[in-house]
Amino acid sequence: MQYRHAPAANHAALDAVLVSAPGRPTLPVRLTVELAGRARERLGPGPVTVWDPCCGAGVSLAVLGLLCPGIAVLAGTDADPAPLGLARRNLGLLAPGGLDDRASTLDGLAARHGKESYAVAAAAARATIPASRPEWRVGVADAGDPEAVRTRSAASSRTWCWRTCRTGDRPRGRGSRGPVPHRRPGSSSRSPSPCMPRRWSSPSGAGGRCRCPRACVRSNGSGPGTGPPCSSGPVTCTPDRDIPGQCGTAAPPGSSA
């Protein structure tokens, strides 16, 4: 993939600055920034809200706030409350003094354990200036429950829908993270919002398409169903074309989409 919005850089130190639980995978920082840049290119100028419906430890949201300008609000929800404490700590890095506090913690770890990597991470934290100072909020909500999401996440009309198709998932969503409403929570806006899928692979190893949990249209409006191959960038999901059950997933109860 050709990177247009994320110049090559070593983000290893930034990864150490972020808070994570043992065993959790690290985030591909450059890819995250590139996908955000492509989504922003479609939206045009102006402040935006980023909503991650399966935010986990909030690493994706924190990275976007640290490295991407023009973000007004970061909203994270997850059906599992366990990692949300980590999400709050990571998003707290964006507040004034947040990175300095994290650097002090890392200095203490370096002194206690005698590991240079902690000292390097502390220096990286002090050298980082957040590209955005957004408001942020996280809370427990099932992405398939519109009312719960609406309560937890109030977003602007210019929202990036950060949805993932994990490697190994079936296109019909079996084992996936569940259906995600493609309109902003609590909104009746019919403005399309770009969704950023990742490639999935079939059991045979062949690449496939990322299927929207609910009905989507291709960016040229050619009809509902699967989006374009993941390598071609975001697909565009429009709430007014959102047809219950179209992509193998029924619309959540109470959804008006």
Structural summary, described in words:
The chain is α/β, with parallel strands linked by helices. It folds into two domains: 1-162, Vaccinia Virus protein VP39 (Rossmann fold), CATH 3.40.50; 164-257, no CATH class. Helices cover 28% and strands 11% of the residues. The protein has helices spanning 12-17, 29-43, 59-67, 84-91, 98-113, 116-127, 146-152; strands at 48-52, 71-78, 135-140, 159-161, 193-195, 235-237. The protein has a four-stranded parallel beta sheet, sandwiched between helices. Strands 5-6 form a two-stranded antiparallel ribbon. β1 (48-52), α3 (59-67) and β2 (71-78) form a beta-alpha-beta unit.
Tell me the count of domains: 2
Helix and strand element order: HHEHEHHHEHEEE
CATH topology of the largest domain: the name is: Rossmann fold
The tally of beta strands, per DSSP, is 6
Structural class: alpha/beta
Q: Would you tell me the overall average pLDDT?
A: 68
Biggest β-sheet description: 4 strands, parallel
What is the CATH architecture annotation of the largest domain? 3-Layer(aba) Sandwich
Strand order of the largest sheet: 3-2-1-4
Q: CATH superfamily of the largest domain, please?
A: Vaccinia Virus protein VP39
Question: What is the strand and helix layout of this fold?
Answer:
Blueprint (H helix, E strand, L loop, with lengths): L11 H6 L11 H15 L4 E5 L6 H9 L3 E8 L5 H8 L6 H16 L2 H12 L7 E6 L5 H7 L6 E3 L31 E3 L39 E3 L20
Parallel strand pairs: 1-2, 1-4, 2-3
Antiparallel strand pairs: 5-6
